[in-house]
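Lecture 7 notes: from sequence to structure.
We start with the chain below.
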Amino acid sequence: MILDDFNLRGRTAIVTGGGTGIGFGIASGLIEAGADMACVYNATYPAELEKAASALGVRFLPVKANLSRMESIDGIVKTVVGHFGKIDILVNNSGMCPREPALEYSEKTWDDTIQLNQKAVFFLSQVVARQFVRQRSGGKIINIASMLSYLGGFNTAAYTASKHAVMGLTRVMASEWGSLGINVNALAPGWIKTRLSEPLRRDAQRDQAVRARIPMGDWGVPSDFKGVAVLLASDAGNYINGATIPVDGGYLTK
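Predicted structure tokens for the same chain:
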């Protein structure tokens, strides 16, 4: 039956930045589908996600790590495999979006953004893919792109560059690793109600301008990512590879 193909019971997922925002929406969906969860966090302990996992009877592992430091990447995978014995799903959600005019953009801001949004995404995917190969199990990788994987943005030079790169990396990893049973896809969020977007939503003029361009008429919410994340992480999405799927209420159609 088709609904059985969406079941993630017995599978282990890693979600970076899964304690808040879009990451929380994705991680919650995977948990609700039955996946055991390793949540990578840097500052704030993912207590709400841990509570959700406990309520649904799935195993939960908090992994404190700073993805801005390359040496943390191997440790994440070793910790998760040591605890659960395997990995089936990786969601590269952690990211940052500092804003500076391009004429004033600093090298530090550039390097920090590219490290977290682009370099860590590739190298964590590489280490997890090697684990998939060792397991001879295949696996699923979901990257978080952006509407700025398609557009230019404003005051977001490194973020835009990194998110264009995420879409390209998704394609090349899918191309190289598909024959190994590894599916690599991306989600491209639009305007979503999160803590990071709160200042924009408080600006009445900007809020109205955003809503006017979204065919669905409103900002999205983190739970809007549950269904598509489960699709890409489960057997139901076994023949989807190299795709970047907008979750934007139609924003990119205008």
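Points to note: The first helix runs from residue 21 to 32. The mean pLDDT is 97.
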